[in-house]
Amino acid sequence: MKSGIKQPLLFSFGQYEWNVMPFGLKNAPSEFQKIMNEIFNDYTKFTIVYIDDVLVFSESIDQHFKHLHIFINIVKQNGLA
After folding, report:
1. Is the pTM of this model over 0.85?
2. pLDDT (mean) for 7-34
3. Residue 42 main-chain phi, psi, to 5 deg
4. Would you list the domain boundaries of the chain?
């Protein structure tokens, strides 16, 4: 994922940048939702994403295990775990 504009913290002894999204930024929830939507966009047939909650649903138990395997791989590939 591309990183956007960061909120650096400037001190007399150095500059620091967040590695994760800090709390309190006005647009943080909507930006995070956009990122999650991009990551899971190809899997909307068996996932529903709401901020940091992902629902994985299936019609059978065998299909569900396949969907969970796909979900876990997506999470790992995108550094979400």
Report:
1. no
2. 82
3. -75, -5
4. 9-77
